[in-house]
Amino acid sequence: MPHGSIVDTHLHLWDPKRLRYGWLDGNDVLDRPYLLDDYNAATKGLDIQAMVFLQCEVEPSQYQLEADWVADLARHDPRIKGMVTWAPLEKGRAVLPELQNLARHPILRGIRRIIQFEPDLDFCLRPDFIEGVRTLAELGLSFDICIDHRHMANVLKFAAQVPNVPMILDHIGKPAIKDGVMEPWASQMRELAALPHVSCKISGVATEADHANWSEDELKRYIDAAIDAFGFDRIMFGGDWPVAVQAIDYQRWVGLLDRILASASPAEQKKFWRDNAVRFYRLENVL
């Protein structure tokens, strides 16, 4: 297991008894509360120094309530140092008052408005959406890019238009691992990495494979390609718990990455597990 502390850049917590998450309906694994006690049990024995909460696709009308709830959880577990919430960025600059309301919470670090679920592949290129993302710069916020490989071509165009907002690609862009397809995803990852304001989370990889039949070598091909594209200065660890438990438990995910990174230098490993997350999510003053 890793030597030294870990910053988990991708923690989900939810309670369907408190808030509405329609996407959980019918999912026998995920459709139940996943709370801090469950996370602590899943990570027992690991030195998790800090976590960044990522929005959980709550009912849009409840996104402010989700942010308020997580901010309260952070007062009970101060390891929650950052929070990335949902916001309706498609409103363009009109979203600013809503962002300012979210910024009441000192742990706010960024916004994730998921692109993957939009039926229109051009959604991220709409002028109002791009203007909404540009507005994040006024509050010093970052943007989490959540897509699958079908959106990569448009995301390249989108990210290039917003160079002043730090961005991070969640789940290595969700390549078609289950189908064994590398291209054009691998080439597009190198193109995206050529944009200096974009980083990449090594997270959610097993979930894109056959949940019951993936192999470590199968995942390694894609993880290696992501690391090669972005380099050790712009990659970081994400647990994607509990979504990932559909395919892999937390301890196994950490162990798999630890083996893949065995040939990296101690400094590179420290960047991956901790330092890059601290820098990207601006945690320097809270750790």
Describe this structure in words.
The chain is an alpha/beta fold and 287 residues long. The chain is 33% helix and 13% strand. It is built from 9 helices and 8 strands. The chain has helices at 36-42, 63-76, 96-102, 127-135, 152-160, 185-193, 216-230, 250-260, 266-280; strands at residues 6-11, 48-54, 80-85, 108-111, 142-145, 167-169, 198-202, 235-237. An 8-stranded parallel beta sheet has the order 1-2-3-4-5-6-7-8. Helix 3 (96-102) links the parallel strand 3 (80-85) and strand 4. The longest helix has 15 residues, at 216-230. It is an enzyme of class 3 (hydrolase). Its EC number is 3.1.1.-. This is L-fuconolactonase. Belongs to the metallo-dependent hydrolases superfamily.
Describe the secondary structure blueprint for this structure.
Layout lengths: L5 E6 L24 H7 L5 E7 L8 H14 L3 E6 L10 H7 L5 E4 L15 H9 L6 E4 L6 H9 L6 E3 L15 H9 L4 E5 L13 H15 L4 E3 L12 H11 L5 H15 L7
Parallel strand pairs: 1-2, 2-3, 3-4, 4-5, 5-6, 6-7, 7-8
Strand-pairing-aware structural class: alpha/beta
Strand content: 5-15%
Strand order of the largest sheet: 1-2-3-4-5-6-7-8
Element order: H for helix, E for strand: EHEHEHEHEHEHEHEHH
Organism: Kaistia dalseonensis
Domain Amidohydrolase-related: 7-283
Keywords: Hydrolase
Family: Belongs to the metallo-dependent hydrolases superfamily.
Briefly characterize the structure.
The protein has nine helices and eight strands. The chain is α/β, with parallel strands linked by helices. Strands 1-2-3-4-5-6-7-8 form an eight-stranded parallel sheet.
